[in-house]
Write a structure and sequence with these properties.
Layout lengths: L1 E8 L3 H11 L7 E9 L6 E9 L4 H14 L6 E7 L2 H11 L5 E9 L5 H4 L1 H5 L7 E6 L24 E9 L5 H15 L3 E3 L17 H14 L25
Antiparallel strand pairs: 1-3, 1-4, 2-3, 2-6, 5-7, 5-8, 6-7
Length: 255
């Protein structure tokens, strides 16, 4: 396991994001690519972090996978590394540091439409974070997002909502006096983004705050048919909407 990173100041958001957006669809399919809007300890102001992690059979293969990004990265990154050794344990430690215990969270996510101007529509989410520990991330779904039922790769898959662009916001703070600020920031971001979103991923969504689509139409119908047939009393809990009004009928699965 090896990683490369290219960290830019917030003023270079458009340059950095457009670069990784352009190269990700045809990049090595064994390399994970993310773009994160965050704050870097020891530095002032917001930053844009481009991170690539690859898992290969040898150092040479890992270096070859990461080299195209290294060769094409725009000038101006204030911190960077290339093909640095990492591990699953280290990656979990990094995730835990970014998502600390004992804090307050407001989280939401969306799949951005493939025809959207992704850099423009996500700019506010990446560059106006409400607290030092908050972050926004974009994850490159292409080419896996282009798989279809006809390919045989999505057959019987319930988690079927996806586009080329997954993005999520994590508003993180410590004092309850900041609740309104941090929660309203997330709501405001998604209120503006709604026209550009196809739906959401269930894991980082709160349907008591915002309803949206989360399965493709046919998969959703099949799942609800199964539920109504085999669990008509709702013994197995579904996903709660505000005041649990959907009950055993289930969420509407509509934008």
């Amino acid at each position: 396991m090896r990683s490369s990173a290219y960290i830019y100041e917030k003023k270079d958001y458009r340059k950095a994001f457009q670069w990784i957006l352009d190269i990700s669809p045809t990049y090595d399919d064994g390399t994970e690519i993310v773009c994160v809007g965050n704050h870097i300890p020891g530095r002032t102001g917001g930053h844009i972090t481009i991170l690539l992690v690859t898992m290969k059979m040898s150092e040479e293969e890992a270096r070859a996978a990461l080299q195209p990004a290294h060769d094409s990265a725009p000038h101006g990154h204030v911190i960077s590394w290339f093909c640095k050794e990492t591990s699953l344990a280290q990656e979990y430690d990094d995730q835990h540091a970014a998502n600390p215990n004992g804090h307050r969270y407001a989280v939401d996510n969306g799949y951005v439409n493939n025809d959207a101007d992704v850099v423009s529509v996500l700019e506010k989410a990446f560059t106006t974070l409400p607290s030092e520990k908050s972050f926004t991330l974009w994850y490159a779904m292409n080419p896996a997002s282009r798989f279809t039922v006809a390919d045989g790769k999505l057959k019987d898959m319930a988690l079927s909502m996806q586009t080329d662009h997954y993005f999520a916001t994590y508003s993180i703070w410590e004092d309850d006096s900041d609740d309104d600020l941090c929660q309203s920031w997330v709501k405001g971001i998604f209120s503006e983004l709604e026209p550009h979103l196809a739906g959401s991923y269930l894991g980082d969504a709160d349907f008591q705050v915002r309803n949206t689509k989360f399965w493709e139409d046919e998969q959703g119908k099949r799942l609800m048919h199964i539920r109504k047939t085999w669990d008509p009393r709702g013994v197995i809990a579904g996903y709660l909407d505000k005041d649990d009004k959907s009950g055993v009928v289930g969420l509407a699965n509509k934008r």
